[in-house]
Amino acid sequence: xxxxxxxxxxxxxxxxxxxxxxxxxxxxxxxxxxxxxxxxxxxxxxxxxxxxxxxxxxxxxxxxxxxxxxxxxxxxxxxxxxxxxxxxxxxxxxxxxxxxxxxxxxxxxxxxxxxxxxxxxxxxxxxxxxxxxxxxxxxxxxxxxxxxxxxxxxxxxxxxxxxxxxxxxxxxxxxxxxxxxxxxxxxxxxxxxxxxxxxxxxxxxxxxxxxxxxxxxxxxxxxxxxxxxxxxxxxxxxxxxxxxxxxxxxxxxxxxxxxxxxxxxxxxxxxxxxxxxxxxxxxxxxxxxxxxxxxxxxxxxxxxxxxxxxxxxxxxxxxxxxxxxxxxxxxxxxxxxxxxxxxxxxxxxxxxxxxxxxxxxxxxxxxxxxxxxxxxxxxxxxxxxxxxxxxxxxxxxxxxxxxxxxxxxxxxxxxxxxxxxxxxxxxxxxxxxxxxxxxxxxxxxxxxxxxxxxxxxxxxxxxxxxxxxxxxxxxxxxxxxxxxxxxxxxxxxxxxxxxxxxxxxxxxxxxxxxxxxxxxxxxxxxxxxxxxxxxxxxxxxxxxxxxxxxxxxxxxxxxxxxxxxxxxxxxxxxxxxxxxxxxxxxxxxxxxxxxxxxxxxxxxxxxxxxxxxxxxxxxxxxxxxxxxxxxxxxxxxxxxxxxxxxxxxxxxxxxxxxxxxxxxxxxxxxxxxxxxxxxxxxxxxxxxxxxx
Length: 692
What we know:
The protein has five domains: about 5-75 and about 215-260, ATPase, nucleotide binding domain (Nucleotidyltransferase, domain 5, 2-Layer Sandwich), CATH 3.30.420; about 75-215, Dna Topoisomerase Vi A Subunit, Chain: A, domain 2, CATH 3.40.1360; about 260-495, ATPase, nucleotide binding domain (Nucleotidyltransferase, domain 5, 2-Layer Sandwich); about 495-605, 2-Layer Sandwich (Dna Ligase, domain 1), CATH 3.30.1490; about 620-690, no CATH class. It has 16 helices and 36 strands. The chain is α/β, with parallel strands linked by helices. It is globular, with a radius of gyration of 26 Å. The mean pLDDT is about 90. The strands form nine sheets. Strands 13, 14, 15, 20, 23, 24, 29, 32, 35 and 36 form a ten-stranded mixed sheet that branches. The chain has a six-stranded mixed sheet with strand order 3-2-1-4-11-12, sandwiched between helices. It has a four-stranded parallel sheet with strand order 6-5-9-10, with helices on both faces.
């Protein structure tokens, strides 16, 4: 594989492009072109190639993550999609969980199914929970749907039958009939996308995959063509929500696995930076233009999950969105980015987000028509951002427009000076992020003060020190190329794939042969995908059981050893379950039967973690000579602080706070409570000063 590789991360505001070549890294941030995302991608690719002096034909690999599928689901801009399901279950996706996610809200709204009722069709068939066919598929009824589907002008169909995760024969046959009659329609089988129990989640995931498949397939096709026409003829791999990368063929078949691809890249970056810094417990903090993402990482492993919600009706309320059953790195995502819009509510309180200005029109300071103030406008007013060097000088900022927007929307309504109004916006967004981090940590049974904070994304270095102060965190790391951190993380991600199967096992009747056969089939399926992108690589296998006490409604993830479990496997699995249960809930429940509902096998190429590097003896760095006028929200006054240019700082360079450490695409604000030093890997590490 060539050492020249490109990573592309499309966000809501910026598209980040990173070129690695011969031990060097060239980066670019360009505004996302929402109408045709490949346009912004090609602009960024052309920029890094020209700056590095690298020929397009010399690039050996392109790795890509995108929010396109997520945005299509949130904005309901996917394909016209139908659902074909078991007779009697037409409304399962609308009944959902049959409970109120907010029982006291009389005006509570549920998310509308991706297939409206007139596009949900039912056919006679029935498979039992053990896979036995109780009622054969009525193939004539399936064929009879073709005229209605054609008349409805559907572009995608999801086929989801009861218990198809055990026996998918009926789904396979129904899909074959429809595909033959409707060759231009994308067909998704629920047993392929989510072969797990619980019909609502499985049908919802299949519908979401069908809904975004035409859009993603078209975009990926156009991107491949544009790259090839631009001379970049190497393989294109896609980042998945689980943190692994996969082939474009798999991405086209299962685009739903790309929903959280950008944030996943950030988590991969954070685990590598944690290893280089010798930090075994960290909080990953990714703040871009539209959202902020927070992820807990222990022993260099991000928390993983099998469930995820998208397009929530109430952003922070679980159960108010569309459930997806896909492998995903578990994180909390809030509407707190540089483009998050500020306002004053009817109670006279400053609010920030979740609505974002995006890149079109963008913050008021962009001069592209935005009139409402954003976090970026507030940061500019407070002196945190250089209006000339922002985004490497590609996006000049208008400080007067930023101040005008802040003053008109927040300052005058609250009778506050402009700088204090801007400080209020910054404080609110920082408090929103710190609250989200605390809640996420409590829900996961974790502590925050003992962790390091790894901050990246264009806006994170501006807010990281203040966020650490609110969370009681002593160490903050700003990685190299922090502003394009997720894209850098893509280059560190393994080629990987995860397979899940639902098979009920009572630990009192453990069947080693059945599980051995199950895992062998899962291994073969996962390896067939991974080997397409890594024919000769060493592979790492990870097994997980999803277990519970009998009578409980949901399972917890229990790590399993690779290979056959020796001895009394049922007792060994029960012991592993109790260890995991005790860690999560602080106790176990004696004398209850333990059962496993699902099993997963993940296969990934081996990507060794970097070694920790020592920091040379700190030496006071030389500032640029420029002084930045920075507003101190604690003191409520302006102060002049020195500016350092990060590309000029070598390992061991020490900078006492307060200070601003600028670099081409972002800047790090070092508050008076911290001192900064460049470590042996080139990362910027902020250490809190002792109380003395």
